[in-house]
Amino acid sequence: xxxxxxxxxxxxxxxxxxxxxxxxxxxxxxxxxxxxxxxxxxxxxxxxxxxxxxxxxxxxxxxxxxxxxxxxxxxxxxxxxxxxxxxxxxxxxxxxxxxxxxxxxxxxxxxxxxxxxxxxxxxxxxxxxxxxxxxxxxxxxxxxxxxxxxxxxxxxxxxxxxxxxxxxxxxxxxxxxxxxxxxxxxxxxxxxxxxxxxxxxxxxxxxxxxxxx
Length: 213
Prior knowledge:
The protein is an alpha/beta fold and 213 residues long. It has one domain (5-212): 3-Layer(aba) Sandwich (Rossmann fold), CATH 3.40.50.300. 50% of the residues lie in helices and 15% in strands. α8 links the parallel β5 and β6 (207-212). α3 (51-74) packs antiparallel against α4 (92-100) and α3 runs parallel beside α5. The protein is globular and about 45 Å long.
């Protein structure tokens, strides 16, 4: 891979984990997968049922989990892998919390975030997998996590808009590749997967690069 540290991002159901896992397996990458299930973040199922009650606990738990994982994974020299690939970028904490928290809670949360992650390495390439909300919903229903089945179209659209806002704010600081994957099936179609690999494995300047595959 051209880059030493790649982060795959996208809204719920975009296929981040599937793509990052396959790339790591195929190209000898060190894989970092977000920890969120079950005992890792017990507030997640509660949040989907009562978001106003559990949003702050949810986001603070994610913040702690992401910090500990990235500190452990990125701070250790790895001689057995050629690069690092993750299925998230830690700034998603800011994106989700801005959508989920009240303004005063968000201001407190963002201060914690900036203190904790000020020295954390950034990915050399941030890849955002874009899909329409209808396709995201189909993928969410297909993977069958019970607590996700009632997520609204509005919530997904708001999160996606949050990513767009963040990427515009960061376009002078990061390499960002937005891939429109609406017409692709990179799980079942090898040619579609190869298109994504060929697009990712290229030199890009700092800024936003939008590509429809």
